Amino acid sequence: MNRRGPVFLARRSYRMRRLRDGARLLPVAGTFLLLLPILWQPSATEARDTAFDGIYIFAVWAGLIIVAAILSRALGTGEEAEAPAGQEDDEGLTP
Known about the structure:
Layout: H1 11-35, H2 50-77
């Protein structure tokens, strides 16, 4: 009988991978959110209402900083156990 390891990843390892995925996706989401005002319909007047756009961009900028700080803190404190020297981890990189 062939014994295999568990089918599922450990909960901590799974959460760390999802946090890393979120950190990788943050610049893409930020770019989309910062470019979103370009797609908004102009108001009834000829002039563009830049006050609301400025507030929106500042709010997105501040939100991205907060989310990045939360992700970096979570990724910094949840270090996974390092592989012994000379062994590759599951992503194919040596420590």
